[in-house]
Amino acid sequence: MKKPELLSPAGNLTKLQIALNYGADAVYASVGSFSLRQRSAKEFNLESFEEGVRLAHKNGAKFYATINGFPFNGQIEPLKKHIKTVADFGVDAFIVATPGVMSLAKQIAPKTEIHLSTQANVMNYLDAEIYHEMGATRIVAAREMSLKDAVLIKEKIPNLEIEIFCHGSMCFAYSGRCLVSAVQSGRLSNRGSCANDCRFKYELYAKSEDGNALFRLEEDESGTHIMNSKDLNLSAYIEKIIQTNAVDSLKIEGRTKSEYYVACTTRAYRMAIDDAMAGKFKASKYEYELNTLKNRGFSDGYIVHKPYERDDTQNHVTSIEEGTHQVHAISEDGIVFKTKFKIVPNEAYEIVAPLSSHINLGQNELGMVYEKNGRYFVEFTKLVSKKGKEFDEIHSGNENEINLPFELPKFSFLRKEI
């Protein structure tokens, strides 16, 4: 079996470092106004973006720059400068969505690989072959494509890499080609500023033109989430996907999501890939970890079942569901932590750390770190800040950095079951 790349989102420099520490083989990120996630693109400036490329390469990982927006005529000249600037940083590939941008990138940076965005809607070998002939070394397949189709494309075009999404938000529209946000709020989804209108509650009405009567059609007294898609979760199918030898990269969606999301998803799919390659795949292990995340409900999408065979990909009740765990703190340096929710003395908090890391066990005046049933926990006796101030408890919003009893791996998280 061929081991696929694990590709994680890098919404900012901290999330990029978390992805690398938790096992990503590659990361993708954007800067400026030319990707479909302008909010995360604003998290980077040119200096931190270049630093991100350097960090990825230092860790033996690849860095892909997303320039997959659909530009207006007035954006072409700035786009040319942007491509040149990002190429000079040494990115490993551009993720692009249109033939015009692809052609432009090939002219300006001929040595930089081209990955075709999922926005290009490739679902068959005819389209894949055309883009490959134009210079794409990889396609990010449409999320509506099946695994059987991926296998056929690989058979027809063996030198073309295939990347699929394995986890993250799903759009109710075909391959993300949605205009609802543009119509309702003037925010253009295909240029990076989608307002996620599909997640809102809506009410349905029926009107009689004869009597001018208007009736509300009630499914729920507070409305219903008509278009709200569940989140994609293919963790249970990773072994099956790998066994086809058709998929070269497994991609996690979520550049605008939390640091814990990046850590947890990268960690879970790192385990799934490595376990599948070692012949000890256990779906429940990865599903447990992913269920700790806030989500919209999970679906396995269309990679195994065709769209018309599915009737469980929408969440009509809520646009967000609590996961099984609450994240309480993050430690970037392993020495102190910053509170994300609440920390109190004499309560156990589970430690989430990169897979290959070592956890120091012991007890001192600040607290103790111990192992129980294969998991690691910390309990605080005292909450003492880096500056020496003691607290009875720490809540989110408190900017004080609190000392850990023992040094933990960098980018460790503390969580509790809800």
From TrEMBL:
Keyword annotations from UniProtKB, A to Z: Hydrolase, Protease
Top-level taxon: Bacteria
Keyword Secreted: no
One function term, GO molecular function aspect: peptidase activity
Gene Ontology process terms (BP): proteolysis
Record's keyword annotation contains Chloroplast: no
Family label: Belongs to the peptidase U32 family.
Protein name (Swiss-Prot/TrEMBL): Collagenase-like peptidase, U32 family
Organism this protein belongs to: Campylobacter iguaniorum
Lineage: Bacteria, Pseudomonadati, Campylobacterota, Epsilonproteobacteria, Campylobacterales
